[in-house]
Amino acid sequence: MTAFTTLFETVVAVLLLAAGALSLIAALGLWRLRDFFQRMHAPALATALGTWCVALASIIDFSALGEHLDLRGAVIVILLALTAPVTTAVLARATLFRQRTAALLEQEQVRPTRD
Amino acid sequence: MTSVLSLAVWATLVCFALSIALATLRLVRGPAAQDRIQALDFIYVNGTLIVLVLGIRNSSTMYLEAALLMALFGFVGSSAMAKFLFRGEVIE
């Protein structure tokens, strides 16, 4: 019984450390990359893989070391997997719209239209 | 909880705090509004993960509901702000 407990706790510890490392890599990418559209890729590492690691760790911790099966951590993974792409897509479209509008305004200022 | 797991929980919380600090730098520095919204969304996700890790540390399932609410409100706030960037209106 204690051997199983030690094994599960080691698995939980490895998953948590992986999530921390992934989140740190994502934050470094968010800070170091140059363009907005390059920076858009970095946080997906934390929202996808990091959330999976932490939710799996919590499921294993509550199920294997607690009294009964507890799968509520999976709800958070499902919610983030549904909502993160929506936010990213809306933000990307808004950024494209803003950059195109700014470019159009600049073009009109350089070459004024003649009536 | 063995010392291995408590050490791992501590190191993970430090990693999350560092990444929130880096995202805060981007939030303050960010050249355009979309960079700030992206950094805020990332901070929300990290806060959700921190609450989950605290639930593992205190071995209480009450933290799961708090994490769920944080994820939900983070999505609502980030998508509303991203929608606001289009024309200055959230609901058209």
Kindly describe this structure:
The complex is a heterodimer of chains A (115) and B (92). The longest helix of chain A is centred in the C-terminal third of the chain and has 38 residues, at 73-110. Chain A is elongated and about 80 Å long. Chain A has helices spanning 2-32, 36-39, 42-64, 73-110. Chain A is built from four helices and no strands. Chain A is mostly helical. In chain A, 83% of the residues lie in helices and 0% in strands. The mean pLDDT of chain B is 90. Chain B has 92 residues and is mostly helical. In chain B, helix 1 (3-29) runs antiparallel to helix 2 (33-58). Chain B contains three helices and no strands. Chain B has one domain (3-87). The interface between A and B is large, with 52 and 51 residues.
Which properties best describe this structure?
heterodimer; A: 115 residues; mainly alpha; elongated; B: 92 residues; 3 helices; 86% helix
> Helix share of residues of chain B?
over 70%
* Alpha-beta classification of chain A: mainly alpha
Figure out the total of helices of chain A.
4
Count the beta strands of chain A. Answer: 0
Helix-strand sequence of chain B: HHH
Counted by DSSP, the helix tally of chain B is 3
Biggest sheet of chain A, in brief? none
Q: Tell me the series of helices and strands of chain A, N- to C-terminal.
A: HHHH
Give the DSSP E fraction of chain A (strand runs of 2 or more residues): under 5%
Work out the largest interface and the residue count of each chain.
Answer: A-B, 52 and 51 residues
Mean pLDDT of chain B: 90
Give the overall shape of chain A: elongated
Class of secondary structure makeup of chain B: mainly alpha
Distance between the termini of chain B: 52 Å
Please report the total strand number of chain B as a whole number: 0
Specify the biggest β-sheet of chain B.
none
N-C termini distance of chain A: 86 Å
Report strand % of chain B: under 5%
